[in-house]
Amino acid sequence: MTTLIQIEEAVAELAPQDQKSLLSWLQGRLEQKAHEETPLTEEHESWLNRLEQLRNSVGTGKLTTSTEDILDDLRSGRY
User: Fold this and answer.
1) CA distance to 45, 60, 74, per residue, from 51 (Å)
2) Do the Cβ atoms of 56 and 48 come closer than 8 Å?
3) pLDDT band at residue 13, thresholds of 50, 70 and 90?
4) Are 1 and 10 in contact (CB under 8 A)?
5) For residue 10, what is the DSSP state?
6) What is the C-alpha to C-alpha distance for residues 39 and 24, in angstroms, rounded to an integer?
7) How far is CA 79 from CA 13, 50, 62, 66, 75, in A?
8) Residue 19 and residue 1: Cα distance in Å, rounded?
9) Contact by Cβ (8 Å): 48, 40
């Protein structure tokens, strides 16, 4: 089967359960492809580098409470 028409005709002849199995398989393949890493654009790469520089300039190097946790605590009155 080298053409889409031939594939469609063959699928139409499958039993409904086999069509469902094929659909599940195809969905899995599409989801897998969607999760594969795509190459970064130059702009995206530049942005990630700048973000890393910013993190390094404000970070303490300690693995303690994150800034987000501190802000959440302050907002909720848990300080």
Assistant:
1) 10, 15, 24
2) no
3) very high
4) yes
5) H
6) 27
7) 67, 31, 20, 14, 9
8) 17
9) yes
For 20-61, write each residue's pLDDT tens digit.
999 999 999 888 877 776 777 888 888 888 888 887 777 666
Contact 28, 22 (CB under 8 A): no
d(CA 24, CA 47): 37
What letter represents residue 77's amino acid? Answer: G
Q: Is the model's pTM score more than 0.70?
A: no
- Please give the full DSSP string across 26-75, using - where no structure is assigned: HHHHHHHHHHSPPPPPHHHHHHHHHHHHHHHHH--S--SS-HHHHHHHHH
